[in-house]
Amino acid sequence: FRVTASTRASPSPAPRVAPARSRVIVERVRSSVVASDTSDTTAMSADVPSLRLIYFDVMAKGMQVTMVAHHSGLSWEGKPEGFAWRDGPDAMKPKGVAPFGQLPLLFVGGDDTAPVAQATAIAAVIGKLAGTDGAENMNDFATSSMLVAEAEDIYAALQKGQPTLYAKIGSGVKTEQTHEELWTTSLPHHLGCLEKLCDENGGFTSTGVTCGEMFLWGVLHQVVLLAKAF
After folding, report:
1. Considering Cα of 97, then 125, then 63, then 165, what sign does the dihedral take?
2. Cα separation of 94 and 142, whole Å?
3. What pTM was computed for the model?
């Protein structure tokens, strides 16, 4: 996954996402939700400010907000912060700019404005600007908000049990046991709850493309990639 520095325009809405029930069937998450940049675009209204996302040139916390921006119907720019992995993950975080000293950041209306930090807040801001937060329908709004929170829970579970380039098995709380529990207990539970919610509602929301669904897809796609890798 790469975020180019070029200006993007969002494609037309993508199909619904149907999360999987367990690690074995996690690949039911449909990759077709990612539309091509050549798709039909929705022109940005003159009164909607420009959007610019900044993150490292990797997935992690950037995938979710990129999905929200890409399927918002708004014009936006994705700019990765380039750095060498040998310099460590903190090497290029904007000093004095990021409110909490971390990425991603969203600039609304130009780089001279105060950025929005935290992935969940970024998703909420884009959703409000684009009208993809489900606010016109209380059930859609509630479900979209729940899916963002659930995606964060899944990401937290991955952080606890899944080894990474900088946090291998044996570092911190990551052990063979926590890794096993992640894939045999934690993820199947989360995915089972999502499957039930999706089935009961005939799809998560009435549109299938709320910012919460796009945010969730960004996490589940990474779960699929990990399932294939391990």
Report:
1. positive
2. 33
3. 0.78
Distance CA 189, CA 211 (A): 23
Query: Could you read off the pLDDT tens digit of each residue along the chain, which spans 230 residues?
Result: 223 333 344 554 333 333 344 333 333 333 333 333 333 334 444 567 789 999 988 899 999 999 999 999 999 998 777 655 555 555 555 666 788 888 899 999 887 888 999 999 999 999 999 999 999 999 999 999 999 999 999 999 999 999 887 788 887 788 999 999 999 999 999 999 999 999 998 999 999 999 999 999 999 999 999 988 87
The owner of tokens 């990990």 is: 226
Token digits of residue 41: 């675009």
